[in-house]
Amino acid sequence: MRARGREVRKIGIMVSGRGTNMEALIQATRAPDYPARVALIIASREQAPALSRARQAGIEALYIPGRGSAWEQEALDLIEDRDLELICLAGFMRILSPKFIQEAPPIMNIHPSLLPAFPGLNAQQQALEYGVKISGCTVHFVEEGVDSGPIILQAGVPVKEGDGVEELSRRILQAEHQIYPRAVALWARDALEIEGRRVHIREEK
Ligand code: GAR
Fold first, then answer.
1. Pick the CATH number of 109-205 from 3.10.350.10, 3.40.50.620, 3.40.50.170, 1.10.443.10
2. Is the CB of 140 under 6 A from ligand 1?
């Protein structure tokens, strides 16, 4: 398959929950010009709503039971078997081992804050409690360490007077759905160049 004269890259998405970022990626990849397509969803929770959402969208979606190194090996075997070139974490709520990160293709993650502020769980609540006036979301490459790794794209979202976790999370999520497909498209078009901690975005070739 080709998009604008290029090979369409095959990506996988790993999820644990709801799957709205996964859906945004699947939607984006349906555009005729989009340079990647989603070939596999891997879930760490059998009840993850993302699994049924993916199947409804006609994408192969598998739950891997268990955890730890056996879980990771099974995921790596699937990734290799399906020739996936990029793994997107989309609400994947486990920490991956250094071995997985080394052996897998590049991995991206989306996080609901302007990293390095507020890593870990409940980022939106952390932002509200801290009292920041602007929060947002970050797409980054995954390295060892929680929500660290070179930053690809960020979007700022103003915190409004009277915002609770729900309202802020909803507005941040809308921004997440915009920047994740953009980051994946940049990667698929070979427009990203990592230099240390910095990710340079080259003009489209
Ligand atoms: C998203 O807000 C994502 O940024 C966050 O989990 C949510 C998943 O929603 N991820 C993290 O906090 C990672 N540290 P979704 O399942 O609807 O995409």
1. 3.40.50.170
2. no
